[in-house]
Design goal:
Distance between the termini: 23 Å
Order of helices and strands: EHEEEEEHEHEHEHEHEHEHEHEHEEHHH
CATH architecture of the largest domain: 3-Layer(aba) Sandwich
Strand order of the largest sheet: 3-4-2-1-7-8-9-10
Strand content: 15-25%
Largest sheet: 8 strands, mixed
Shape: globular
Radius of gyration: 22 Å
CATH class of the largest domain: Alpha Beta
CATH topology of the largest domain: Rossmann fold
Number of helices: 13
Oligomer: single chain
Number of domains: 2
């Protein structure tokens, strides 16, 4: 099978979506499929490349005003048709809900019959974070985004969501095409409580004392400032922030204003090889974002056996069960985060119970199950489309 995937970015551009696309593409190539990924060039000019058996078709790109590292793909409708005609895929899977998928929508209207699957990694509420235009205007923009997104989704043969929570929200808003839930998954062979790590303490100059870990882009929607504000309640604990992004300077300024600079540590980008060890070196994981459609870092924390304190929002309650493997706290409530983190840090017995519960949750998301589910979806959608072309009245197999 030849699989064509679309993504706004691909490593070395790092985000949850780009890493998911990469590992699914590599896994499908490893299973014997031909895989082509159309994505933004990471330096502007178009070029071709290969990544462990995956052919990368990097298209011309432009700077992104909201994320300096994540350039915007510039792909015309006509160019997409040329690429599809050259690649001749059996199925198209887009992980982009913006520019690339709208060009794919135009492609679909030409009635060229290639089965198309959309994997949705966002909630329309996400777009309002960067408007700063007042509640009424932001609500209006969110409503418009919902209408446009659902219109786009209804042009696809199937929609995949990383979590049941996200799927339910879209169905309640009017989604009316076949859909399924496939976890983004993680490598549970690497993300475990046990492992032989190099001297990460020295390599990253990790502080002594209880360590609270945060992992993610340093961007407005991640609400890392809430965690920094929570640190004002601690005398000994340290917050380790892994990730890079445009908001680092502003976050450093907040830490300085609160007088917690010595207990807030920006580790920057940490290579994937070191990430399991970073989790193992910490005592508790915290995430304040309220737009997570699943959250790979939270999955990694659970699989590594960390207690978790998370915002009670979006899909995080699927991974964090209040009082079972951590605490769910109100969105944006720094005091509530501090209280939850403090209870875990101060009670080794409670922390141990939460660790055991996190492990059980994390193991349910082994990435091998993700790869099997994607491959089965590709095959079934391809067969279904073939049957429907032969018999227009044939029913769909997904529900």
């Amino acid at each position: 099978m030849h699989i064509l995937m679309l993504s706004h970015g691909y490593p070395p551009t790092i985000s949850g979506v780009t890493l998911v696309v990469q590992k699914i593409a590599r896994a499908m190539a490893g299973r014997g499929h031909q895989v082509t990924v159309v994505t933004a060039s990471n330096h502007g000019a178009p070029y071709h490349d290969d990544d462990q058996g995956v052919h990368l078709w990097r298209v011309r790109s432009a700077p992104n005003p909201f994320w300096s590292e994540g350039r915007l793909p510039l792909l015309t409708h006509e160019r997409l048709i040329e690429i599809v005609n050259e690649v001749k895929p059996d199925v198209i899977n887009t992980h982009d809900s913006a520019l690339l998928s709208w060009q794919l929508y135009r492609y679909k209207r030409n009635k060229i019959h290639v089965p198309e699957i959309l994997t949705c990694h966002f909630l329309p509420r996400f777009v309002t974070y960067y408007l700063h235009a007042g509640e009424s205007i932001e609500d209006m923009v969110e409503d418009i985004t919902w209408d446009a997104t659902l219109h786009l989704m209804h042009s696809f043969d199937h929609v995949i969501f990383p979590s049941g929570t996200q799927r339910t929200v879209f169905i309640e808003e009017g989604l009316d095409v076949p859909s399924s839930v496939i976890s983004n998954g993680l490598d549970t062979g690497r993300y475990t409580p046990d492992g032989e790590d190099i001297d990460l303490e020295g390599k990253y100059d990790l502080p002594h004392g209880p360590r609270i870990l945060s992992v993610g882009r340093l961007a407005l929607d991640k609400k890392i400032d809430v965690l920094i504000r929570a640190m004002a309640a601690f005398d000994q604990a340290h917050l380790l922030i892994v990730g890079r992004g445009d908001d680092r300077h502003e976050l450093e300024k907040i830490a300085d204003e609160l007088g917690v600079t010595e207990r807030v540590h920006f580790l920057g980008f940490v290579p994937e090889d070191d990430m399991p060890g970073i989790y193992r070196a910490c005592d508790v994981f915290a995430i304040a974002s309220d737009v997570e459609v699943q959250s790979i870092p939270t999955l990694q924390a659970a699989a590594t056996g960390l207690p978790i304190v998370a915002a009670n929002a979006a899909a995080l309650p699927e991974l964090v069960q209040d009082g079972h493997n951590g605490y769910l706290v109100p969105v944006g409530d720094a005091a509530a985060f501090a209280a939850g983190l403090g209870r875990i840090i101060e009670s080794p017995a409670l922390a141990d119970a939460f660790r055991a519960a996190s492990l059980q949750i994390g193991r349910q998301h082994a990435e091998e199950l993700t790869f099997q589910a994607y491959e089965a979806c590709f095959e079934l959608i391809t067969n279904e489309t073939s049957d429907r072309l032969k018999n227009p009245l044939a029913s769909r197999k997904f529900s």
